[in-house]
Amino acid sequence: xxxxxxNMGGLVPLSTAFAAVAGLVAHECxxxxxxxxxxAGRRGRDLNKPKNPVLPESLGMAAxxxxxxxxxxxxxxxxxxxxxxxxxxxxxxxxxAALLSITCMLFLGFTDDVLNVKWRHKILLPAMxxxxxxxxxxxxxxxxxxxxPLPLRPLLGHFLQxxxxxxxxxxLLAIFCTHxxxxxxxxxxxEVGQSVxxxxxxxxxxxxxxxxxxxxxxxxxxxxxxxxxxxxxxxLLRHNWWPATVFxxxxxxxxxxxxxxxxxxxxxxxKTLLLFFVPQIFNFLYSMPQLLGxxxxxxxxxxxxxxxxxxxxxSKVTFVLDRRNAPIIAVLSRIGLLRIYARNKDEITTxxxxxxxxxxxxxxxxxxxxxxxxxxxxxxxxxxxAILLRHHFASYFFP
Length: 399
Ligand code: UD1
Ligand code: MG
Known about the structure:
Layout: H1 2-39, E1 43-45, E2 54-56, H2 60-74, H3 76-81, H4 89-115, H5 119-122, H6 125-129, H7 131-139, E3 145-147, H8 153-156, E4 159-161, H9 164-182, H10 190-211, H11 216-240, H12 249-266, H13 270-275, H14 278-291, E5 304-305, E6 312-313, E7 316-320, H15 326-334, E8 340-344, E9 347-351, H16 355-363, H17 368-397
Antiparallel strand pairs: 1-2, 3-4, 5-6, 7-9, 8-9
Bound molecules: uridine-diphosphate-N-acetylglucosamine (UD1) and magnesium ion.
Uridine-diphosphate-N-acetylglucosamine (UD1) binds near residues 182, 187 and 247.
């Protein structure tokens, strides 16, 4: 076990080295990839710039490709390094299934970018992509129990077997991680920025767990998957940061979400992972009235540019109040989660229901990069609190 632990430690620096090279390669490849995508007709208009310049779209494909090549090249490393079977066959199975799920999601994300798949269809794409992973999970670990929090133990016992519900939970996790990033979007740098903060939170969680003596295999495994992701994302962020020269596309949002779901599932920290998604959970719940069609949902809900000041302002939506949406609107506006701009008989104009618009409602209008920075700061504060909760206070509830 001592040899094993030592070699485990060796994997993390090696993975970091692979990640560094991947980041540099991605950084250099993205402009050329962008020109090719532009040439192939993959383009979008930057809606928050005065002249709406045309930028190449779907550069998540470049980051994802460099990531996958890096991971494929990394596969032999644990086996060459470890003659005493550091990553046993089971681990190799998990590793390849993880990469298969991520590859599949990258492919479906690009398909969505090209074909503009309808919401009712695309909602299920991540559940399809995560199936190989769930299969490997069931034949290897197959654990479907959760530890019950202390106050509920007299009722439910120490462990609760969730059985098939656990698999449903994992599929829902994959759906949530991918789509929740895709709907917290529309401002230069924001899709990649939030993903970088989530990924770094996972890195910190893994390192702290290793320090606290939790079983190393799962956390090292997670680190080897997430470090190269951080690197290619930072490279993409440089090109997508305000004023962006490329768009990341749904391809990147799906790729990022699936990578998080994969490490959460195989690293057995699916619940902790959700703690790193608090802004996305808020944005998802807040968006519900528009996603469910109770309030009309325009094609784009991103904040809008004030051409005179050059700053972003909340984008607005006008709709008819009816008995289904009126109570929701009343409550949201009462608790400060909605600004009403105009009201005319039954017709009302409010901000679009997104976290980005809400930050502008309360923080005042600001330039696009400041909004992206604000969102990343909110995410960082939430995630550091989550790590504190998980590593220092969880023992009170889960002794
Ligand atoms: C999601 C959001 C939509 C938001 C869009 C922006 C929901 C239900 N859907 O839709 O409200 O407007 O993302 O990405 O919440 N764009 C910019 N600047 C950016 C990023 C994107 O102008 O920094 C524009 C470009 O025209 C780009 C397009 O958004 O081509 C990409 O939109 P897309 O990712 O296809 O939208 P959805 O994911 O369907
Ligand atoms: Mg999108």
